[in-house]
Predict the structure of Aminotransferase.
Amino acid sequence: MTATALTDLSADDLASLLEQQRAAYAELKATGLKLDLTRGKPSAQQLDLADDLLRLPTSTKDSKGVDVRNYGGLEGLADLREMFADLLWVEPDQVIAGGNSSLTMMRDTLVYLLLFGGVDSERPWSQEEKVRFVCPVPGYDRHFTLLESLGIEMVTVPMHDDGPDVDAVAALVADDPSIKGIWIVPTYANPSGSIVSQDKAARLAAMPTAAPDFKIFWDNAYALHHLTEEEAKSADILTLASAADHPHRPIMFASTSKITYAGAGVAFLAASTANVAWYLGHLGDGSIGPDKVNHLRHVEFFGSPQGVRDHMVKHREIIAPKFAEVDRVLTERLGGRGVATWNTPAGGYFVNLDVVPGTASRVVALAKEAGIALTPAGSSFPYKQDPDDTNIRLAPTMPPLAEVTAAMEAVATCVLLAAAEKASA
Ligand code: PMP
């Protein structure tokens, strides 16, 4: 039976739907659920896949004879840089293997730009009257809180399935030298699942910018995190930027946080060799070298770039059914009602749910009262302000499948109740 859109219901039918949803919600609350869909964390089952790491490395030296227990090698272990250069489609001398968090590398890069300026800066960014970033929305909440913490202002542009609205980006950056950068999650973006097209990547690499030191923070956190057998390949932003004569514009980030251990993986930065030297120059003031034991552990664990790809298939087998379940429940419960739209991502960690404008906060509050923790409404927008109060980010990877089902049934009830309340108001 096809459900009727709320807008097509008679006043009586709408009133009875509201009553039904109130009853369903009361029942839901009475079951005393305690479920969490807030953050994109790997499940314990996924983490178990990498437990051989706990018995590695077996050697104290890498293939070049470097003793990994000692100081040195600020740029990271060569074998691991080579492995991930292959996976990220860059050259080994363009890659740094660092600590366990790419977000920290992003923060360090921003702090160096603010304090010292980049290789193509006229002065440190902190000496500019104002520094602003373009933020495609919805986007990754920690990108936004990081910028806010550093006093960098945010200007939003819409994110589409094939990347940001590049016309809007190009118009913003063309005349305003205070706009110094943009965040891009090029593959399976958080939370929209978008994949930046080759054409859009080329335009971002080539567009004229008023700031001579404009930077693309190309956060490829989900480069290898496919949910289907069709594996999207990220655009080669470093080559595109070089070809467009802006070699220092992109700085790429990635990590094994959602490949091996979220808390004990390895993060990577990739950029022009001049940018790499610049970053290491500043990093070297505060470090004599990274955790090369962990680097070697990862080299031994994977063996080759193909080893990483094979490992990601095991992740896919665990999490793809959870994403399918989100889609199944939402389709069954909300399909045809005209109360929500959502994506079916081909990779990454999130489902982007858009509910009736003006009801996202209400849905999240209703869910919370019924024991289901969702990411706060507005989180995917700078300053946590979703102008339409419509967007909710769902993160289904961490709970077991049965809990994903229960949580999505509950979310569907909350979405319907909030929509029926609004339509009846
Ligand atoms: N970038 C994006 C887009 C993310 O979604 C995440 C994790 N949620 C990160 C970066 C964090 O990466 P890391 O664990 O390497 O700090």
Observations:
- The longest helix spans residues 305-334.
